[in-house]
Design a protein that fits this description.
Elements (H helix, E strand, L loop, with lengths): L3 H10 L7 E4 L2 H11 L3 E6 L12 E5 L2 H11 L5 E6 L4 E11 L3 E8 L4 H4 L2 E4 L5 H9 L2 H7 L8 H19 L3 E12 L5 E3 L2 E5 L15
Antiparallel strand pairs: 1-4, 2-3, 2-4, 5-6, 5-8, 6-7, 8-9, 8-10
Helix pairs in contact: 2-3, 5-7
Length: 222
């Protein structure tokens, strides 16, 4: 499993919209990172096996000063652990975008309602990559969370929908181009209000071996 920062960097290299972030091992490093990525920030505990950080009490949100960052680090981060400091994303609709390798069908892309209750919601749909834009859009149409997003088009707001479609296609392409990636979990992906973008807040990427840097990744889906 890639650590959260390495996963975010790989996702960003593939053109996914990840907020600026970095890893800190001391309160001082966390404060310096917060200044660099820009307030407000989120501080997340990095620990093996910790998936839903907010449910486990491993996240401090909307930190607006160095003193708040220091206090959160001291409160949340155990000895020998690290913290991910990330620019706070705007609020919005939370979706999950993922991909995995099925023993029979190979790479599979998934879309649905996201957040900490993703398993309970069971609002998901699946496709085999590579995805056309039409196929990715159909994935939105097949879920209630996707249909909720598509209602924005009636008001002339389609920018964030196009970004979600692009992320779905890129996740599938990552699996096709890198057979050493066994799983991609982007949850939550925050679809902010119209004009405020889409933000891949948490990235989990599981590997069978080291992943090389993607070459010319941004041109693969042209």
């Amino acid at each position: 499993m890639l650590d959260p920062q390495a996963g975010a960097e790989l996702a960003a290299a593939w053109g996914l919209p990840t907020p600026p972030s970095g890893v800190a091992v001391t309160p001082e490093e966390a404060m310096a990172l917060a200044e660099r990525v820009g307030y407000p920030v989120v501080l997340k505990r990095i620990a093996p096996g910790l998936i839903h950080k907010s449910r486990a009490g491993g996240v401090a949100l909307n930190l607006k000063s160095a003193s708040e960052v220091r206090e959160a680090f001291v409160r949340l981060i155990h000895p020998e652990e690290q913290a991910l400091v990330q620019r706070m994303a705007p609020g919005g609709v939370e979706v999950i975008i993922g991909a995995y390798r099925d023993p029979q069908f190979g790479p599979v892309v998934m879309f649905g309602a996201g957040g900490v209750d993703v398993e309970a919601l069971e609002d998901v749909t699946f496709r085999l990559p590579p995805l056309t834009r039409a196929e990715a859009r159909t994935m939105l149409e097949e879920t209630w969370i996707g249909r909720r997003l598509l209602r924005r088009e009636r008001e002339g707001n389609s920018e964030e929908i196009e970004i979600v479609i692009d992320i779905l296609r890129r996740a599938g392409q990552m699996m096709l181009e890198h057979p050493e990636i066994t799983e991609i979990d982007l949850n939550p992906v925050i679809v902010a209000s119209p004009g405020k973008g889409v933000h891949v807040v948490d990235v989990r990427i599981a590997l069978s071996e080291e992943v090389p840097a993607p070459a010319a990744a941004a041109t693969l889906l042209a």
